[in-house]
Amino acid sequence: MSNILTLDLHVHTNYSYDGRGSIEEIVESAIAKQLDGIAICDHNTMEGSYAARKYVADNNLDLIILPGIEVTTSNGHLMVLGIEEGIKEGLSAEETIRRARQEEKEKKSTVVIIAPHPFHPFRHSIGNSCLHSGIDAIEIFNSRYLFGAANKRVRIMAARNGITAVAGSDAHSADCIGLATVEVDGVQRSEQEAILKRIKEGEVRLKSCKRTPFWLYLSQLCKKKR
């Protein structure tokens, strides 16, 4: 029987300017919800990713931490998984992708570039340019939507253009971990490189696709404005 891993590919911690969950809270929540792994993708920093991996290692916890970052490019947000060194914000999407590919080549490792929430109207999204920007996958389900029309739009676009589809909770607090997940099979928990390669090659499928509860989404927006 194939080993099936359940992953949340879009998680923020309090290392993000708008994140509220501590590393301990995020990791413990993921374990409690029986996830096999999460990708820490804080805004324009990898410090949360480094801290999460240290916390898991120091406490001998059974959770995959895929290193990642959500970069604010001049064209919109891009998530980069598998990278070990951050990419500064404000560069064009093209230059951001070039730098990610350069690290991939130099370190001979797999890097996965994802367009998150590409059509969300209020989150500096990359839009239709993700069709020709050299990305590996599109987030066709993002939990942080009140209604979900933009999710439907990108789902149709991904299907029409044969682009790998992924999902992510976009959790900004521990209680939202795991609302949107994907499955990867045929790899072991210790094989980070193989997991990333599967995603990059499109060997990934959506599992859970639940929206953030309205009351929680609203409370987070209110806290952000303060």
In brief:
The chain is built from 6 helices and 9 strands, in the order E-H-E-H-E-E-H-E-E-H-E-E-H-E-H. With 226 residues, it is an alpha/beta fold.
Descriptive account of the structure:
- This protein is α/β, with parallel strands linked by helices.
- The protein has a single domain, classed as TIM Barrel.
- 31% of the residues lie in helices and 24% in strands.
- A nine-stranded mixed β-sheet has the order 7-6-5-4-3-2-1-8-9.
- The longest helix has 15 residues, at 93-107.
Topology (elements, then pairings):
Blueprint: E1 4-11, H1 23-32, E2 37-40, H2 47-58, E3 64-73, E4 76-81, H3 93-107, E5 112-115, E6 137-142, H4 149-161, E7 164-168, E8 180-185, H5 192-200, E9 205-209, H6 214-225
Parallel strand pairs: 1-2, 2-3, 5-6, 6-7
Antiparallel strand pairs: 1-8, 3-4, 4-5, 8-9
